[in-house]
Amino acid sequence: MDLDCSVEAGWPGGTDWEALAIRVAEATVRIAPELANPRLSASLLFTSDAEIRGLNRTWREKDKPTNVLSFPMIGRADLLALAPEGPPEMLGDIALASETCAREAAEKGVSLDAHAAHLIVHGLLHLAGHDHELGEEEAGAMEEAEIKALALMGIENPYERPDAT
């Protein structure tokens, strides 16, 4: 899978966001091998809350920012049946909101890099046809895949609560 990244102003310096996204995609492909098809491409936009709010309003009729949006362009059945030879196929688009991501990372007590990595994995799994809103079983499977992909990067389970015993 080819991942095209664009980082807009507002995302903090000090992190090579494109390099992080590529590492995340490589880890996610190991957990979701259907994403390894060489014909696939996806775009990832690191943008502002204002931009995400506009996208969320336009495409989901929700007038508020959110941490990540995914816009799949190929259905899961078609993705699984996609031959490795042939013309390029656009898997879809992902967008992350800087202010929301930074706020959530601070609330969780994790680095922005780790939280952004989690959200990119989440977005890629949505592009692969996974949907946590379809029920508990799918939500659990999606969480498990996220945990495994992040572990490959040395990132702790984002669903564990440090104060939980």
TrEMBL record:
Entry's localization field: Cytoplasm
Record's keyword terms, sorted: Cytoplasm, Endonuclease, Hydrolase, Metal-binding, Nuclease, Ribosome biogenesis, rRNA processing, Zinc
Annotated HAMAP family: Endoribonucl_YbeY
Binding site for Zn(2+): H122, H126, H132
Pfam families: YbeY
Oxidoreductase recorded as keyword: no
Species annotation: Novosphingobium marinum
GO cellular component: cytoplasm
GO term, biological process aspect, one: rRNA processing
Required cofactor(s): Zn(2+)
GO MF term list: metalloendopeptidase activity; RNA endonuclease activity; zinc ion binding
This enzyme's EC code(s): 3.1.-.-
UniProt remark on cofactor binding: Binds 1 zinc ion.
Name of the molecule in the record: Endoribonuclease YbeY
Enzyme class at the top of the EC tree: hydrolase
Task of the protein: Single strand-specific metallo-endoribonuclease involved in late-stage 70S ribosome quality control and in maturation of the 3' terminus of the 16S rRNA.
Family designation: Belongs to the endoribonuclease YbeY family.
